[in-house]
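Internal ticket - ligand job 283, pyridoxal-5'-phosphate:
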Amino acid sequence: MIFLNGEWMPIEEAKVSVLDRGFIYGDGVYEYVPVINGKPYRLEGHLVRLNNSCKEIGLKNPYSHAEWSELVKKIVEKNGTHDQGVYWQITRGVAKRDHSFPVGVEPTVFMMSNPLPKLTQEQIDNGVPCYTFPDTRWHRCHIKSISLLGNVLAKQHASEQGGAEVVMLRDGFLTEASASNVFCVFGDTIVSAPKDNHILGGITLDAVTDLAKKAGMKLEVRPVPAAEMWAADEMWLSSSSKGVLAITTLDDKPIGNAAHKGKPGPVFKKMFALVQADLFGTH
Ligand SMILES: Cc1ncc(COP(=O)(O)O)c(C=O)c1O
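stdout (structure tokens):
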């Protein structure tokens, strides 16, 4: 069952006008939260980010945090007992095509839930190949916008080469992946790009940061130039659907030092265990 504009229905019955501004302009924002053992992971972070996204595009968030939490809880109950990924989006609604915001129009709210994708043991043990890609997206990547053409084209570049993700570079600095954040490790220090307007501030990135701090691991938030990135001992991806995942080759070149060249490194293994424990509530 899905939720559309206040009603529950099978996805096959869900219909949206062709004049919806989400369809015409990609004018909307979205969220995606993993639900494990029936519990949404770090939902509050997602709700705060949704509020920010709405504010940034001048869209009134139609529901309070309590109402969103209730909707997420309901959709999970309606869709089974397995782990799920809940996706929802808000668009600026249906109106005659005109770029300026329409007046007096209700937003369109759509929520669906699907089984949470699971990493394979092979991906966990061996990491994944990624490919570099120029980050030519707009300068407001901190908004979780449904206008994702830049990200779609980036991901396609990776897919066509059998890669799991892209690692994007803007003006010679590492930004993020098409649907994940990117971490580098130098020695025992974990480094991530600043959470500015050139990346989406990931909730999983925040989780990694919290967990690293609690575990006394070394962390730095700073720009990473391409040359430094290429010398990283480890690289990882993080996202709500993947958790953390090691990048073991970049443009077909192995990442890492002699001890674990082309293999997930020790800092990744420690963080992977911490994230798993946090996700499954076993910490
Ligand atoms: C562009 C981009 N960066 C980073 C992320 C990771 O964010 P989160 O950890 O909140 O899933 C996503 C997730 O969809 C994304 O689309």
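Auto-summary: The chain is about 30% helix and 30% strand. The pocket of pyridoxal-5'-phosphate is lined by residues 32, 151, 176, 179-181, 200, 202-205, 238-240 (CB under 6 Å).
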